[in-house]
Amino acid sequence: MSFQQPFFNPRVPFTGCIQGALHEGKTITVTGRVLPGAQRFHVNLQCGSRGNPDIALHFNPRYDSFLDVVICNTMQHSKWGSEEREYFATMTRGANFTLMFLVNRDSYSIFVNGVLFMEYLHRLSFSRVDTISVNGGVEVQSIVLLMGEYSTFSRSGQRNRNRSRQSKTGPKTPQWCNATQAFSAAGFLQAPPPYTAQPPYTPKPSFVVPYKNIMAGGLYPGRNITIQGVVNHNADKFCINLRFNSGVAFHFNPRFNENVVVRNSLLKEQWGQEERTGGMPFYRGQPFTVIIMCDTQCYKVMVNGALMFSYNHRHFLFQQIDILEVEGDMILSAVLV
Question: Which residues belong to any copy of the Galectin domain (predicted)?
C-alpha cells in the first residue's frame, strides 16, 4: 500500500499534491463540515495546478436553490462538459461529513458518510490527476490519500454500478473555480491573490503509546475520529477504545495472531458479546488510517479508505463518551478528534 502523509486542518481555499498521481484502487477521503451559511463548495481532482489546468472531476455541492444538489463535471482545454446532477440530503449546511473518492478503472465511486452516493465515468485519464483543490463554504479536518485494495458498499450494501444521470439543463460553467493555484517547492501552495498563501504542510510528530486524550464535549452523531499509525513488524494486537467514566462504549481490537478485528463493549464491569466478522484490513509493518464515524444508530469504521465495520451502539449516552485510548503494538503518528 502506498502511503502519503495526510493534510490536517488545511485552510480553505486549499491546493495539495497527490504524490504519484491517481491509480486504480486509490482513495481520497475528505472529512470536514459544511459551513452553516454555505452557498456552495467544491472538491477538484485536477491535472496540475499552474495556469488553467484540466479538471478530471469537479464535485460541487450547491445550497443556493430550492433543492440541495451536487454538480459533477469535467473541464478540458478550459471548456466544461455536460453536467451530471444528483440531489442529496446528507451533506446539509452545518453538518459534518466524510467524503471518499475511489478510483475505479472506468469511474470514480463517490461515497458520502460511508454510503455510495454516485459514480462518475472518467472523461480524462485518472493517471494525469496529481492535484486536489478545495474551495467554498466548507471547513476541512483532514484529507487522507491511500493506495490499496478496497471493497465498496452501495446504498443496499452491495456494489452499485449504475452511473449517475446527466442533466440537460442548468448552467454549464460551475462557480467557485479558481484554477490558477500553484505549488511551492515543498509540494503545495495555496491560491494566489486575493487569497493568502499558506505554509507547506508539516507532519505532526508521533504520539506516545499508550495514548489517552479527553474529547471535549464527548461524542455526538456526526463526529469523526481519525487515527493514523503504523503497525509494528512483530505486532500481536493493538486497540482503540472510546471510553466513558465506568466503561468502554466501543473497543476496536485488531489481533494479528488470530487474523481478526474484535469489537466489543465493557458495560457494568462486564464485557459483552464479541463481534468478529468483517475481515482483517491491517498488516504487520504497514501504515493505516482509521476513521470512526459516530452515527445515530452505530459506529461506522473506515480503514484505509474502505468502509469495513458497523457496530451498533450499546451505550447511548454519547456525551459521556469523552475518552479516547490507543494501546498496543503500533506507532501512533496522528490523531484528529
Answer: 14-146, 211-337
Sheet holding 330-336, edge to edge: 306-312, 298-303, 287-294, 224-231, 330-336
**pLDDT 10s digits, 275-299:** 999 999 999 988 888 999 999 999 9
Distance of CA 124 to the CA centre of its chain: 23
Domain(s) of CATH 2.60.120.200: residues in the chain: 2-147, 211-336
Q: What is the distance between the alpha carbons of residues 148 and 24, in angstroms, rounded to a whole number?
A: 9
The grid coordinates of residue 213 equal 486524550
Write the CB contacts of 225 (distance below 8 Å, at least 6 apart in sequence): 215, 242, 291, 292, 294, 324, 335, 336, 337
**Residue 177 DSSP one-character state:** -
Going from the C-alpha of 143 to that of each of 18, 43, 133, the distances in angstroms are 11, 11, 11
Q: What percent of the chain has pLDDT over 70?
A: 81
Contact 307, 153 (CB under 8 A): yes
Binned at pLDDT 50, 70 and 90, residue 180 comes out as very low
Do 140 and 29 meet the contact criterion of CB atoms below 8 Å apart?
Answer: no
Single pTM value for the model: 0.61
CA dist 138 → 11, 30, 94, 117, 215 (Å): 10, 11, 9, 19, 23
CB 30 within 8 A of CB 45: no
Kindly report the CATH class assigned to 211-336.
mainly beta
Q: CA–CA separation, 293 vs 25, rounded Å?
A: 22
State pLDDT tens for residues 297-332: 999 998 887 889 999 999 999 999 999 999 999 988
